[in-house]
Amino acid sequence: MTRGFESKVALVTGASRGIGAATAKAIAAQGAHVIITARTAKDLEAVEDEIFEAGGNATIAPLDLTDGDSIGRLAAAVTERWGKLDHLVLNAAMLGTLAPVSAIDGAEFARLFTLNVTAPQVLIASFDGLLRKSEAGKLIALTSSVGAAPRAFWGAYGASKAALDTLVSSYGEEVKNISAVRVAIVDPGKTRTKMRAAAYPGEDPSTLKEPSVVANAIVDILRSEFETGTRICVDK
């Protein structure tokens, strides 16, 4: 495949494993410099090593996305070093406990919304200017089918994804006529990840696609001239 992301700078959240790690590696394989974030430095270093071994370039940024100040510092560092951001992939999320709405733990619910909704808003606010400085800034947000089709016991996670969908879609509408920034939403569908295993402990993982399939779909979207409002389900 032709490398199409030379001179591009990308940021992928939740990049220490699963879909995030696979996406970071796939984007780096296209020639972009990828900034990878997650809480655990050791796991990020392993992903960085794989990217370097494959001939790519990456920078690790261990941070807690629930800390808005850390996001601000990262944006300042990206501004100083590159002065732009071409691709922003919002992947980091937590599942939380699957429970009836009447039994949702308030403290956990607040943490879930902080990571799944508030952190993406802070990321958008912090990197909006850098995305606009790109010739074709692109934001991809990872969602879930339960954000659009409510399911019993998935109320907390589903509500956070519904909120994320609305948040990023609204941002896309706000900037599409005044900048080159475009926004798309990706539903990865059934994928072999730790989150999926936690949600469906009895499921045979061999029946699920690898995270790399989703990562390649994300790269295909980033390589295309998609319109804001594009929504892709990788299972279809």
Number of strands: 7
Helicity range: 40-55%
The biggest beta sheet reads: 7 strands, parallel
Give the CA-CA distance, first to last residue: 23 Å
What's the Cα radius of gyration?
17 Å
Task: Spell out the CATH superfamily.
Answer: NAD(P)-binding Rossmann-like Domain
Please tally the helical runs, counting DSSP H or I stretches of 4 or more residues.
Answer: 7
Shape: globular
Q: Report the top-level CATH class.
A: Alpha Beta
Strand arrangement within the widest β-sheet reads 3-2-1-4-5-6-7
Class of secondary structure makeup: alpha/beta
Count of the separate structural domains: 1
Can you put this structure into words, describing what you see?
The mean pLDDT is 96. The chain has one domain (9-233): Rossmann fold (3-Layer(aba) Sandwich), CATH 3.40.50.720. Helix 1 (18-29) runs parallel beside helix 2 and helix 3 runs parallel beside helix 4 (106-133). The protein has 236 residues and is an alpha/beta fold. Helix 2 (41-53) links the parallel strand 2 (33-38) and strand 3. It is globular, with a radius of gyration of 17 Å. Helix content is 45%, strand content 15%. The protein has a seven-stranded parallel β-sheet with strand order 3-2-1-4-5-6-7, with helices on both faces. The protein has helices spanning 18-29, 41-53, 68-81, 106-133, 155-175, 194-199, 211-223; strands at 9-13, 33-38, 57-62, 87-90, 138-142, 182-187, 230-233.
